[in-house]
């Protein structure tokens, strides 16, 4: 599945712009700066590909990447920007809701959580949205290299506790470091097994 090339397909701002639901699809969600672009880059081994999602103007779009001919990787807009205007937030929430509830080839959402910070209120909001859309989601801890062993355990407990409140949560948590490469192969095989 990951042998093929990764290419940016398109940024979508409305439901009618979605590509055909003709292949396996997984999406990635997370607070801005959680390490989403770095993770997608590490996952695909394509440096700089997910940077497209972080360029101004692209940040409110749902960005589609083709990974070979059989897989779409979808980069959802980062949430939790301090200064985003309410109208913009409302608009992308509406699009996000529609996308999540209407996309039949979407097999799993990966919700990225910073290993240092655990689940924040905005993350819980997204999880609620995934619950109500019946999209199974799995937590991916990012920047694992930035925390000490003992602190990591504490955060993991907090994450597990948060997940127990969400019916759509898949219980296995994936620890990753895009910097060191930890957990990347695991995440690839999780996707390949869907
Ligand atoms: P995004 O806004 O969620 O796409 O976040 P980025 O991928 O742009 O990463 C935000 C910052 O965190 C950047 O400075 C990255 O270099 C850094 N970062 C991302 N992943 C890791 C990681 O696994 N380890 C470390 N130490 N830093 C990371």
From TrEMBL:
Keyword Magnesium: yes
SUPFAM superfamilies given in the database record: P-loop containing nucleoside triphosphate hydrolases (SSF52540)
Keyword set, alphabetical order: Cell cycle, Cell division, GTP-binding, Magnesium, Metal-binding, Nucleotide-binding, Septation
Annotated GO biological process: division septum assembly
UniProt entry tagged with the keyword GTP-binding: yes
Cofactor(s) required, per the database record: Mg(2+)
Gene Ontology cellular component list: cytosol
Annotated transmembrane regions: none
Highest taxon in the source lineage: Bacteria
CDD domains in UniProt: YihA_EngB (cd01876)
GO function term, MF aspect, one: GTP binding
Domain EngB-type G intervals: 22-194
UniProt-listed Gene3D superfamilies: P-loop containing nucleotide triphosphate hydrolases
InterPro entries: G_ENGB_dom, GTP-bd, GTP-bd_ribosome_bio_YsxC, P-loop_NTPase
Pfam families given in the database record: MMR_HSR1
Role this protein plays: Necessary for normal cell division and for the maintenance of normal septation.
Family: Belongs to the TRAFAC class TrmE-Era-EngA-EngB-Septin-like GTPase superfamily. EngB GTPase family.
Protein's recorded name: Probable GTP-binding protein EngB
The organism of origin for this protein: Leisingera methylohalidivorans DSM 14336
Name of the coding gene: engB
